[in-house]
Amino acid sequence: MIRGALAFLVVMAVVVVALAMAGDPGRATLEWLDLRIGTSAAAAVMIIGVLSLLAVVTWRIVLWIAEAPKRAARSHSEGRRRQAADVLTRGFLAVAAGEGAEARRLAQRAADLEEAPPMLVRVLAAQAAEAAGDTPAAVSAYTAMLEIPEMRLAGHRGLMQLAEAQGDPEAALKHAQDAFNLAKSARWAWRSLFEARLESGAWAEALDLVEKALSRKIVTPLVAERARAALYAASAASLEQAADPKMRDQAADYAAKAAKLSPGFAPGAVLAGRLLADAGKIGRAEDLLEQAWGAAPHPALWLAYRDLRTDETPRERAQRLQKLIDRNPNHRESRILAVEQALLAHDNPALKAAVAALADEPPTARLAGLFARAAWALGAADEARAWIARGASAAQEEDWSDVDPTGRAFAYGQADWTRLVATWAEAGMLVHPRFERRERALTDLPELPGQYEASAPFVAKAEAGSFVAPDDPGDFDDDLSGPPDVPAVEPPAPRPRRARGEAKS
Predict the structure, then answer these.
(1) What is the mean pLDDT of residues 333-361?
(2) pLDDT of 299-342, one tens digit each?
(3) Residue from 281, 282, 351, 344 nearest 317 by CA
(4) Residue 45 sits in the same domain as residue 10
(5) How confident is the model at residue 20 (pLDDT cuts 50, 70, 90)?
C-alpha cells in the first residue's frame, strides 16, 4: 500500500510540473448547486490526487479494523501450529535419543493439540511407546495404523521390528510379506524376506525374490546378476552329493549358470568344473574355468583345472596350465602358477625366472612352501629348509584357506553358503569362512628331510648330558635316508677340580 501511494504521488508531481512548465497552465472549474470553484489545472490535479489518496487510505483502515478478529484467529492458529510442530519435533528427537518417558509425554501433549497432524501423532505415539519399553502399547499403536491406508506400510514395519525383537520370526516374516505385497518399493521388506530365505537355505525362493526385486527396481541389475550367480552356486553345492544322477545333472547345470553369470565368483566356477568333469564334459569345464581365471584368479581354480584330466604326463599338464596363465598373465596367482608349471615340467631355467618374478611378494606360508619346493628342485637343500622354517610362522592366505586339507575347494555348509551369497550379491566380495575360523587348509609346506637328521641321536644325547661326541663323528649328512645305528657311549668321569692356587702339572 505504501509503495502504491508513493508511486501515485510521484505521478501527480510529474503531471503538476508538466502543467506548470506549459505556457498555458489552464483552468479548472467546479460547479455544484450554487457553489462555483475555479482554480488552475495543476492545483485541481493536486487536489484530486490528495482526495483520492485519502479515500484509499481511509478505506484500507476501515478494512483493517473490520478484519482484526480474523487476523487474531489466524495468529492464534499459526501459534498453535508452531507449537504443535515444536512438540512433534522434540518428541521425535526424544525417541531418537532413547528417552521413552519424555517422548510419551510429548506424544500425549501433541495429541491434545488440534493443529498437530494426526498421522504424525500416531507415529510418535507408537515410537514413544516402543522407546519406553511398553511393547503392548506399541503393538496397539502400530496395529491401529493398519486401518489407515496411508499408514499401513509404517504399521507393518513397526510390527515386524517388534516381532523380531520378541524372537517371533514367523510373525516378522508375515508382516514383511504383507508390506512387500503392499508396496513395490519396500526395500526393507524385500531384504527381510531375502535374508530369511538365505538363512533357511531356500535357494529357489531366494531366486524368485531376486527376480521380483529386479522387476520392481529394488536392486540394480548388477546386484541381481551377482545374487543369481551365488544362489545358483549354492543350489549346485546342495545337490552335488546327491545319489540321483538327475539331481547331479541339475547341479552341474546350476553351477554352469553361476559361472556364466558371474565368472569372478570362484565357488561357482570350481563347482561347475568339478561337476561337468564328473559328467564327462571336460571341454566345457575347461572353458568355464579359463573364463573365471581371466576374471578373478583363485588358487582353487587352477587346482580344479589341473585335475580335469588324469591321462597326461607332467609336461603335458604343464603345457595345459599355460592356457590359464595366458588368460591373466600379470596377476599374482598367474605368477604363482608359473612356478607350479615349471616344477611340473622340471624346467629349471623357467623355474628360476618364475621364482624371481615373485621376489617382491610378501612371504606367506603358501609362498614359503612354494619357494621351498623350488629350491629343493634346484638342488639348494639348505635354502629349502630355510624357507620351511620361515613358513612355519608366516601368515596364511585367505584364498588358500578355501581349499580343505583333502584338497576339496569350497566344501562349505549351509550357514557358510548363506554368507557367501549375501556378501557376493551385495558387495561383490568373497568371504573365507575357513580362514575366519582358523581351520586347517591344504598343506602349505612340503615335507623335506632335515639337514641334521643323521646326527639327531648325537644331538639329543648331548642335550640330555649323557653323551660326548667323538673327535671325528664323520659326515652324517651324506645319507639322508635315516639315522645310522650309533652304539651307546658312556660319558667319561668328570675331572676333579684343582684347588685355588694349585700349579698345573
Answers:
(1) 95
(2) 999 999 999 998 899 999 999 999 999 999 999 999 999 999 99
(3) 344
(4) yes
(5) low
Report the pLDDT value the prediction gives residue 484, as an integer from 0 to 100: 38
DSSP of 258-321: HHHH-TT-HHHHHHHHHHHHHTT-HHHHHHHHHHHHHHS--HHHHHHHHTT--SS-HHHHHHHH
Does residue 173 sit within a domain? yes
- CA torsion angle 247 252 253 258 (round to 10): 130
Q: 140-156: string of b/e by CB count within 10 Å (b at 16+)?
A: ebbeebbeeeebbbbbb
Lowest-confidence pick of 16-20, 233-237, 262-266, 440-444: 16-20
In a domain, 202, yes or no: no
pLDDT, position 415 = 94
**Measured distance CA(206)–CA(184) in Å, rounded:** 17
The structural domain count of the chain equals: 2
SS3 360: coil
Residues 104 and 182 in one domain: yes
Choosing from 16, 33, 66, the residue where a domain stops is 66
Question: How confident is residue 44, by pLDDT bands cut at 50, 70 and 90?
Answer: confident
Containing domain of residue 181, as a range?
Answer: 83-187
Counting every residue written for the chain, the total comes to 505
> From CA 467, how far away is CA 208, in angstroms rounded?
76
